[in-house]
Each structure stands twice: as C-alpha cells, then as structure tokens.
Amino acid sequence: MLTNLYVKNLALIEEVDVDFEPGLNILTGETGTGKSIIIGSIGLALGAKADLGMIRQGADSGLIRLAFSVTEADRKKLSELLEEDLDDDTVVISRKLSQGKSTAKVNGLTVSARQLKEIAGILFDLYGQREHQDLISKKNHLDLLDDFAGAELSSLKKEISEAYTAYRSALKAFTEESKDESARDKEIELAEFEYKEIEDAGLKPGEDEELERIFHKMENVQKIAESVSRALAALSSDDDGCALSLIGAAAREVKAAGSYDEALASHEEILLQAEDLLHDAARGLSDYLEAAEFDETLYNETKERLNLVNKLKSKYGDSIEAVLAYMGELADKLERWKDHDAYVLRLEKELSEKKAVLTELCRKAHEIREAEAGRFETVMKETLLSLNFLDASFEVRLTSGEQLFSAGGYDDCEFWISANPGEPLRPLQNVASGGELSRIMLAFKTVMAGKEELETMIFDEIDSGISGNTAWQVSEKLGALSKAHQIICITHLPQIAAMADAHYGIEKKASNGRTHTQITRLTEEEGIKELARLLGSGTLSDAAIENAKEMRRNARERV
User: Fold this and answer.
1) Distance of CA 233 to CAs 212, 244, 249, Å?
2) C-beta separation of 167 from 354 below 8 A
3) Counting Cβ atoms within 10 Å, is residue 38 exposed (0-12), middle (13-18) or buried (19+)?
4) How many alpha carbons fall within 13 Å on the CB side of residue 536?
5) pLDDT tens for residues 40-71?
6) Helix 113-123 and helix 72-82: axis angle, to 10°?
C-alpha cells in the first residue's frame, strides 16, 4: 500500500508531502491545477521515462519519494529482485531528476531503470489512457484470459515453455540435416577440407604463446645485443670510470683505512662481495653476447609457423584450444555423415517425440482456456451490465492450431463485445467511445480483483466520457474494489468523489510571483464543500451544501 508521496521541484509542484489511506483515496481539483502531475510523479518514481523539462524552473533537480507498506510476500519478491534482504515492511523508493542524469534508490540502494519497472509491477497498477490502449490491443487478450484462469494454467505454461524450447531445438537440428543431397555434399567437402587443414598443422596447446615469445626475441636481437654491450661496457672496460674499477678502488681505500680502525672491516667485506657479483654479471653478459647469433633460417621458420597458427585461429577460433575443439566438432559431423540417413531418422523421431509432448501440453492448456473463457464471458457480461450498459454481450474467441505454436501454447485469443442493444459483436479494439472504454476497463479490473495480488491501484481518467447514473455505477465498483485494494483515483465527477474514504483537494496557489500546486487532505466538512463545487454550484449556498451532504449519504448507502 502506498502510504506517502513526497514531490519537490517538479513542474508546478514546489513541494508536496501527502499521506494516503487504505480504501478509496479520491483526488479532485479544478482543471489545470496539476492533478495528473501528482499521479504522473508516482509513475516517474517507478521508472517511467523522465522529461528533464519537468524540473521546476529555477531548480537544479527534482525529487520524488514514495513510501510503501508491503506484505511479507511482496517483501520477499523485492528482496529477490534486488538481491538484497529487505528486513523492513516499509519500502522507500526515491528518484532524483537532474540535468543530464537520473538516479533511483530503494531503501538507499541504487537501482536501474529496469529494476524500477519490475518493482512497479509488484507494488501497484496505474490505469490511464495508455493502459486503455493496452487493454483493447488484441496481443494482450490471451494474457488477460490466462490471468483469469489462475494458478493451474500458470503452472502448465511453464511446462509448455520448456517443451517449446526443446521442440524448437529439435526442429532446428532436423531442418539443418534435411537439406538436399547436393548441399550436403558441399558441406561434407568443406568439413573434410577444414579438418585436414587443421590436422596437417599438428597444433599443440600453448604453442602460439611460445612462438610469439621466440619471434619477439628474434625480431629484436640487434636491440638486445646493443643494450647488453652497453651494459657490459659500463661494468667492465679499459676506462677507469667503469663500475668494476670504481668498486675495486673503493675496496682498496676502505682496506687502507681499516688498518687504523677495525670497524671498517665489515664494509670492506661488503665491497669485495659486490666486486665479485659484478665480475659474475660481466662474465655472464659476455657469454650471452658470444652465444647470441641471428639464425635467419630459424627466424623464417618461426615466422612461417606463427603465420600458419594465426591464420587457423582467425578461421576457426581465437585460441589453439578453440581450433582443436572445432576440429573435434568436424570429426563428429563427418562421423555422423557416414550414415547420414540413419542420423536424420533419429532426428526425425526425436522431433516427433518433442512435438507430441508439446502438442499434449498445448491441448491441456486449450481445454483450460476454453472452460475459463466461458466463465470469463459470464462474469464480464454481468459486470458490464452493472456498469449501466443497457445491454452487453462479451465473447472470448479462441483459435488454435500447430501453426500457432509458441512458448505459451498454440492458442490465439481476441475479445469481442456488443455494448448496446441491437449492435452486433465486434472486436474490442473497434470500440470508439471513451466512456465505454473506461467502463470496460473497470469491468476487467473488477473481475480480476480477486485474482490480483497487487495492493494498490491508481486510476486516472476512469470517469472519461461518463455522467449521471453511469457515474454512480462506476462509483459503486470503485467502492467495492477498495474493500480489497487501496485505490487512488483522480476524478472530476461528484458521484465518484462522494464515495471517498479519504478525499484530497488539489489547487494552485501563487506566492512571490510564482505558481505552485498543493494537495491537502480534506476534512469531512471540506469534502462536502468540494462536492458542492463539483456539482457545479457557483456559490456555496445552504442548498448546495445540503445537496452535497445528500450525495455523500447516498454514496455510503450504495456500498
């Protein structure tokens, strides 16, 4: 349940801090006061695309913060999603918008936009104009029917998804091996060529690294010799300034001084050891130079071998191990092709078995959908009639067949409706009236209410195109939904506002030359005055107030 909304520096909102209640939360206000901004900020906090132009003029950033009280089940889902244990039943989600970037956090933990959207799917549903379009889109109808069908079908669909993956894999293998003979002969010829090319190379694991080391050394043999020669000259040369001459001179001087002070004996010993080490280094470098020869034949052989290895790596893998693994795959293919007809028969049998498993699972899913479609049609018709349709017919049209195989089964679904007496059934997507769509959408939510785990539902434009008694019917449905769910609803209709468990007024204020939106929890008396305004009373006369009170009493009696 959404318990608190805090918004700062967003569009007309300078700062808003509002607590929401269980049941039906109604938001009302004059046109242009920022009602949709209030609801839109909730969507922004939970991953909706942010327009940085919404940041209030003069502010560096905008902030939205939501606090939810969550059930144990939702807390576990969120912990799994975040890969972080949430040990509190209060979840705080914040999103900061600033020029060039957007950051979001859940209980202080930074999260991605993708994670925010998944979190939104756990915590609430938001219904507005876009959601109307999702409802009427045929591609969503099968999912809606499946949601209505519940746990049995949901479990079966997991099996179908696994069976479909196995079927697709078997189909791919069979299709690849069922090519015409000429194409297969070309593949065999290519495989034999590739296998022989790798086999003839006689590759050894790690060989490329050793070749690279040797080649790198031979490529730089002249530079190596020059550097070693300079080092040898610095150690030992006819010049008295070489290292050995200087160390020897130092040792002699310390020895002479040591005849007067025995404490210098240890230093003399260190210098003599250093002299010995330098002699060893000089001899070693001299031997290296004498042995160092550039073998042009070995150089060319190494270069040629390295080029061959790199060529094979570029064709068959990024390492010798990968090339050898590819060679093993070629060997397997060539072995299979020795008795290709038998191999294809085995693949065909496997494909048939996988298809049979998938078909049987799809058949079971189809039977469940057919049975649930009948129940769905009945409850939808009853619900539509309760929403003041003069007559309503609702039909779930299922088509099925192997040509529709998918991870969800082999069914396709479309909802057809007739909302008025004498009108023929037609696809839901052809319903044009905004008022009809609003009520149809509410009917869906009413029917699904007992099957959805979401605690919070947010409605924007639910009253589009309706009035009079129809508005009362919609109001009653919202009141009924609010018994099991928290409802947050923007409305301009008094019939819906009268049903509120908690009523909030939204208005624009001007101060210091700036306009800002504010939201206030209305008392019962203030709520009555707001109802009078919604009823169209220009002045709050005694008659207008009494009319509003009567509407409030009427609403309470309806639920």
Assistant:
1) 31, 10, 18
2) yes
3) buried
4) 2
5) 888 888 777 777 778 888 888 889 999 999 88
6) 170
